[in-house]
Design goal:
With 194 residues, this protein is α/β, with parallel strands linked by helices. Helices cover 38% and strands 18% of the residues. Strands 1, 2, 3, 4, 5 and 6 form a six-stranded mixed β-sheet that branches. The radius of gyration is 16 Å and the shape is globular. The N and C termini lie close together (9 Å). The structure holds flavin mononucleotide.
């Protein structure tokens, strides 16, 4: 089982990083073999709207530090992406990557609900962390991104929303997330490729 982990927060030891590590721990050997990327130190641009991925190519033609990540996502069974909420949205580091997911949509994506280019069977674990303790406040952000992951062709999108991610509440947030992470790990194992 190939797992790619992407950390959107500039704080690798923060809530998102801790939750990702906990999930990898639950995934045992497969988790230990996972490849992890931190977005913050990388050099990349958002989508340039060149439309090459809708006309002459079926991949993103921009070559930068996101290129191997976009390729690894295509080759993975499970993608674990974490992003903190900044100013009401996923942070810029994560959004820059998400905009490049446009290359996972086929040219007819507006009319064809099956136009995602990702091979069937992939799981996306989307970990969203927020300082605000109120879950409904950003539930719409999660739902919106889930929709685009569905469109790209991820078969299962498994959201993990971590609320009240404030300094000093790391242990409490970890405890609260434990049941959800166990469910996510079970969902990954239950559909494990042979
Ligand atoms: C620039 C900035 C903007 C933020 N904006 C929000 C916000 O709009 N809503 C919110 O609930 N938390 C906000 N936060 C808190 C972060 O969501 C929280 O610190 C983050 O989820 C922690 O994740 P991490 O430890 O993985 O970095 C903001 C934090 C920063 C640094």
């Amino acid at each position: 089982m190939k797992i790619t982990v992407i950390l959107g927060s500039p704080r690798p030891q923060g809530f998102g990083g801790r939750i990702e590590k906990s999930l990898l721990g639950l995934l045992g050997e497969a988790g230990r073999k996972a490849k992890t990327y931190e977005l913050n130190p990388l050099t990349y641009r958002g989508c340039q709207a060149c439309m090459s991925c809708k006309t002459s190519a079926d991949v993103c033609v921009q070559k930068d530090d996101l290129t191997p990540i976009l390729e690894d996502i295509r080759a993975s069974d499970v993608v674990i992406l974490s992003a903190p909420i900044y100013m009401g949205e996923v942070n810029a580091q994560a959004k820059g990557l998400l905009d490049r997911f446009y290359s996972y949509l086929g040219p007819d994506f507006r009319t064809n609900p099956q136009s995602g280019r990702l091979a069937p069977g992939k799981k996306m674990v989307f970990i969203m962390t927020q300082g605000n303790p109120d879950e409904p406040t950003y539930a719409a952000v999660l739902a919106r991104h889930k929709r685009t992951f569905d469109m790209c062709g991820f078969t299962d999108v498994l959201p993990v929303q971590i609320c009240g991610a404030r300094p000093g509440s790391e242990t409490e947030a970890g405890k609260k997330a434990a049941t959800r992470l166990a469910d996510v790990a079970k969902a990954i194992f239950d559909s494990r490729p042979e």
